[in-house]
Amino acid sequence: MSIWEYANPKKFIATTTPLVPWLLWGAIAILTVGLIWGFFFTPDDVRQGSTVKIFYLHVPSAMMAINVWIMMLIASLVWLVRRHHVSALAAKAAAPIGIVMTLIALFTGAVWGQPMWGTWWAWDPRLTSFLILFLFYLGYTALWAAIEDPDTAADLTSVLCIVGSVFAVLSRYAVNFWNQGLHQPASLSLDKEENVADVFWYPALVCIAGFVLLFVALVLMRTASEIRLRRMRALEARMRS
Amino acid sequence: MALKVDDLTVARGGVPVLAGISFEVADGAALVLRGPNGIGKTTLLRTLAGLQPAITGHIDFPEDTGAYASHADGIKAQLTVTENLGFWGDVHGADVPDTVFEAFDLTDLRDRVAGTLSAGQKRRLGLARLGVIGRKVLFLDEPTVSLDGFSVKMFATWLRESHLAKGGIAVIATHIDLGLDAPELELSPYKATADTAGGSDEAFL
Amino acid sequence: MIALLKRDLTLAVRAGGGFGLGLAFFLIVIVLVPFGVGPEAEVLARIAPGMLWVAALLAALLSLDRIFALDFEDGSLPLLATSPLPLEGVALMKGVAHWVTTGLPLTIAAPLLGFLLNLSPSAYLWLLGSLALGTPALSMIGTFGAAVTVGLKRGGLLMSLLVLPLYVPTLIFGSEAVRRGAGGFDATIPMLMVAGITLGCFALLPFAAAAALRVNLR
What we know:
In chain A, 77% of the residues lie in helices and 0% in strands. Chain A is mostly helical. Chain A has one domain (18-43, 50-240). By secondary structure, chain B is of the alpha/beta class. Chain B has one domain: P-loop containing nucleotide triphosphate hydrolases (Rossmann fold). In chain B, the strands form two sheets. In chain B, strands 5-6-7-3-8 form a five-stranded parallel β-sheet, sandwiched between helices. A three-stranded antiparallel β-sheet of chain B has the order 2-1-4, covered by helices on one side. In chain B, a hairpin with a 2-residue loop joins β1 and β2. Chain C has one domain (41-217). The radius of gyration of chain C is 18 Å and the shape is elongated.
């Protein structure tokens, strides 16, 4: 039994449809727990006061903004190598979710930045990188929307995604070079010294898990509807011929 | 080495249009494709030339010997006739022989800028490219569009005497009689049906 | 491949506007800057490195959609694709031709426009150097963008959307080199980064552009 069997559109829909409600409700439950825990049952930060609590939205959405792009990159590679339609459609389905995640990260970053840095927007390397990532997402979805033939669109967007990934990483380093920034160091790193205290960290982990689950549920739903759209198109083309 | 096509299925925009085409063209022979508009003559020729992938089947002829020509013939209006042909000669690593100018009645137009040529003259220039690049297997899509009767004869003569006689091969989609002694392939029987396998939508049906 | 470069350059000269248009656009943008920010020499000197780079980048963007569009319309592209030239080579040569017709004139003109913006004297060499090293990357990235959008009806605007984010690293390092130069510092590091980006673009992007062209020719 190979994992590639799920690349068949019908099998994909049949397998994922029953999973989606579980994932969705699971995500909602976990996020509710995580956010309530984070907002009401953690102490205020010594320096930042209660503003620190936006962290529980900011960090997971920022992580997802990057992870969604990585997922799109992998899906694009799978499409180019193995020509599984589901893979291309999953990348297409993920992009708008990535855009929303990036926007949430930018928005919460601004809201957090206002009391901390005294300004809504600073050309801080991290924020700037996310703005650039947002532009990459825009270009990617615009290319999907502009091309009529679905296979051509899948091919071209995949090539763009690969090239874009290289340039996104390059931009990240360029931006770091360009401005050293106000942002605190990454909240999640393997080097334990830098990390925030455990009290803040456990609810944050729960929120991250919630966001991941939410993304999986949404991407499965959206991929299924992309598959159905494609199926309608195929049936229409068949009726005309 | 002849051109051999075996059980070929071709698609336009991901939809199979022709299926199960097999034929063989020997050295020095031509094949004329016939069929109503929209049957897929252009698609077939583009697939043979390697511009788009075939869904199934094999196309067999020596590598790097094919050339494709359609009504859009890549003529640059700002370059002269000689420069246009010289460019394609350079790209293919070939010189432009004087006989080509004669064969396509371009001798007097050599130094004219291509933008000032008439439609028929441009067409002759486009076809003259085939005489320059020295490719053996020609895939010609409606080569005689906008040519007058005299020019059509001229082209047919060139094809017969300078190309086929030297062992060249030509697959031609055309609606008019070129006066070639060539077999015809009627494409209508090969029209793909709705259940022909291999379309890009297949997985979704 | 040289034949293709020669033809494209001949076409650019004969068609007119090939060399001049981008250059005129560069000049106009630079002339507009003082109207926008005011005539104080200090302010202009401070923003000059960035403005010169941004204006050069926009001028290079202007002519990108012509890289493949003309060849696509008149049918040259499928003929080139079936010729002995690899499409990767075609893409590379198209990028080089675009650089010779836009990047090179922009680089040469930039120091003159630097006077208009009161650019610090110590920055001229760095400006010339960073543009000479950086504009080839802009041309090659643009060639990739043009290859992706060549079959589309209104590809021009979409191409800007695809290409401009890809220009970010080149812009950052390029203008940083000039800024450091203007401040009297050594700008070797950003210059090396610009050179690295250009080399990387020329090594890898022809393959991506050729892949996109093959898809668009299908």
